[in-house]
Hints:
Layout: E1 4-5, H1 11-24, E2 33-35, E3 41-42, E4 55-57, H2 63-68
Parallel strand pairs: 2-4
Antiparallel strand pairs: 1-3, 2-3
Amino acid sequence: MATLTTKTSDQAVQTTLSLLQDLLGAIPQRNFAVRLWDGTVWKPDPDAGEPPRFTLVLQHPGALRKMFLPPSEL
């Protein structure tokens, strides 16, 4: 299971972490991290046995939602 470093109890943070767990939590030995806009880090699976290969940085509370919506015209 992934470890977590949180800096806030913001509802948007909790919702995003829950979505990440639902979407990506089942990846065996997940070797990447996710850093949220407030500094909260969803760390890699400790069983991965290596440092994270990359960190996905979400700079806004709506960033994860935007990633899953179809592209739109500006």
